[in-house]
Q: What sequence folds into this?
């Protein structure tokens, strides 16, 4: 099969974050009253999508529950969590997980829907102050949650979890690929893991590879490739390439079900993960892991 490098999903420079609007109650009110306003609903991590593979919007909502995403071509976009409803609102389309439709959406829409999912997921997990346990309330257009207890008053900001993802090659040019039990059947992908406190990104690359496979990476070979917001639920993927100093594999089965070395001719025969056929599959087209593999194949 011929594999072409995809555009990295969720990274389009579509959204003007408009920080000045967030912090100005009058500007926020004006944005909400703007006739071009769009309200993106999210129901239990699903989005409403029409037959043209474009997002569908709510006509109205409670502004107190809305998160200001920013401006798209000058029009204000908001997001509202409607997960409390037993069923999603009927907007004339279908509801899908973003991971299922992200590759088919336009790059701009995928970016904005990813921001909506990530921000609303953060709100759901921060209803209470992590310092004192009191309730929090949304401020600054939904980009801050402030503790309501006067004795605390801590302000909490949306956080991202940095994660490294790496394509490791050996002296023969083979790629180290693996899969975890939670992944789709047959899928093989690059290794990845979260960055820990007190380590650099390069150290995280070497540590994760060694922990999961016992393969030793040359730290001097680690090279940055690209980054990707990954709102599932709230990571920033930092992609690298690296060279292996050793090739013996001992799989940590608490992390991976399988890992192995694969050459290009073999990987070119892999199917798409969405295909129903058997055999090994490539990672999803919307992932930076796929970009790393496609660059290596090219």
A:
């Amino acid at each position: 099969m011929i594999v072409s490098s995809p555009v990295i999903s969720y990274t389009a420079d579509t959204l003007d974050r408009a920080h000045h609007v967030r912090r100005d109650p009058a500007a926020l009110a004006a944005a909400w009253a703007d006739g071009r306003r769009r309200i993106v609903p999210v129901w239990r991590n699903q989005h409403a999508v029409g037959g043209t593979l474009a997002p569908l919007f709510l006509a109205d909502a409670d502004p107190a529950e809305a998160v200001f995403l920013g401006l798209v071509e000058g029009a204000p976009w908001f997001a509202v969590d409607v997960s409390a409803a037993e069923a999603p609102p009927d907007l004339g389309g279908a509801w899908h997980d973003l991971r299922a439709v992200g590759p088919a959406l336009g790059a701009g829409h995928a970016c904005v829907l990813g921001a909506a999912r990530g921000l609303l997921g953060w709100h759901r997990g921060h209803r209470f102050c992590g310092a004192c346990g009191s309730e929090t309330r949304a401020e600054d257009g939904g980009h801050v949650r402030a503790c309501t207890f006067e004795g605390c008053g801590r302000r909490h900001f949306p956080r991202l979890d940095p994660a490294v993802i790496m394509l490791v090659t050996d002296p023969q040019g083979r790629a180290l690929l693996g899969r975890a039990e939670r992944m789709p059947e047959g899928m093989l992908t690059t290794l990845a893991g979260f960055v820990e406190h007190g380590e650099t990104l390069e150290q995280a690359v070497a540590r994760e590879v060694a922990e999961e496979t016992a393969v030793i990476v040359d730290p001097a070979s680690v090279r940055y490739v690209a980054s990707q917001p990954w709102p599932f639920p709230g990571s920033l993927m930092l992609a690298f390439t690296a060279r292996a100093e050793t090739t013996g594999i001992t799989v940590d089965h608490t992390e991976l079900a399988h890992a192995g070395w694969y050459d290009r001719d073999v990987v070119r025969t892999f199917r798409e993960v969405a295909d129903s056929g058997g055999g090994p599959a490539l990672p999803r087209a919307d992932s930076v892991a796929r970009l790393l593999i496609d660059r290596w194949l090219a």
Remarks:
- The radius of gyration is 21 Å.
